[in-house]
Amino acid sequence: GAGVSQSPRYKVAKRGQDVALRCDPISGHVSLFWYQQALGQGPEFLTYFQNEAQLDKSGLPSDRFFAERPEGSVSTLKIQRTQQEDSAVYLCASSPWRAPTDTQYFGPGTRLTVL
Amino acid sequence: GENVEQHPSTLSVQEGDSAVIKCTYSDSASNYFPWYKQELGKRPQLIIDIRSNVGEKKDQRIAVTLNKTAKHFSLHITETQPEDSAVYFCAASNTGTASKLTFGTGTRLQVTL
Question: How far is the C-alpha of B55 from the C-alpha of B77, rounded, in Å?
Fold first, then answer.
């Protein structure tokens, strides 16, 4: 079946612009995660949804970052007033939820470059 | 919070040799330890995982061992092939509370002919 998809794959923004990144999880997956991966680093957790409820947003670096999943399926990560330090690959992952089926499946990521 | 350290950062082996990557974690409540392979510009792909109720798991040329007492786990790849060349990440999570993964910093494995 179809895996996790993300769009756009690449995004170039001028400093100060707002951006919106989309994630389409695997159909039926309850859990959805956003991670930020800086160049040469491992992914770092941003936020977590269980269905439409945002249960953990402890990893969001500032109040310029906002995520939503209004119908418990597609999710959008929004970054307001982008800064150069926001440049990274933003990865989305989905999971069926409970062990032993809680494996996280990753999307291809959106590479954000802020000029 | 959880902290995962990974070593080495780069590893070069000859085709056919074995490769070992080691990770340590800090939170004794962590109970799920996946390993992901990421090729350049591609998504991380799960290659094997282990839960805290077992000490070892094997899948063909890949094996993972877990020592809960010492809080470390390792990835073993035998009979390496050029297509094994990639960056490998270990991760840890506590699936009983938050399922977020805490990743190591990655190991770049280069398999040479």
Answer: 17
Could you read off the pLDDT of B83-93 as tens digits, one per residue?
A: 999 999 999 99
State the smallest CA–CA distance between residue B25 and chain A in angstroms. 15
- Note the pLDDT tens digit of each residue in A57-110: 999 999 999 999 999 999 999 999 999 999 999 999 999 866 555 789 999 999
Exposure class string for A62-100: b at 16+ Cβ within 10 A, else e: eeebbbebeeebebebebeebeeebbbbbbbbbbbeeee
What's the gap in Å between the CA of B24 and the closest CA on chain A? 15
Given an 8 Å threshold on Cβ–Cβ distance, is A43 in contact with B49?
no
A43 vs B contacts (CB less than 8 Å)? 44, 89, 101, 103
Which of B20, B25, B21, B22 is closest to B4 using CA atoms? B25
> Of A46, A25, A21, A43, nearest to A110 (Cα)?
A21
The label of the residue with tokens 């092939």 reads B81
Q: Which residues contact A54 (CB under 8 A, 6 or more apart)?
A: A47, A48, A67, A68, A69
Rounded Cα–Cα distance for residues B86 and B104 (Å)? 15
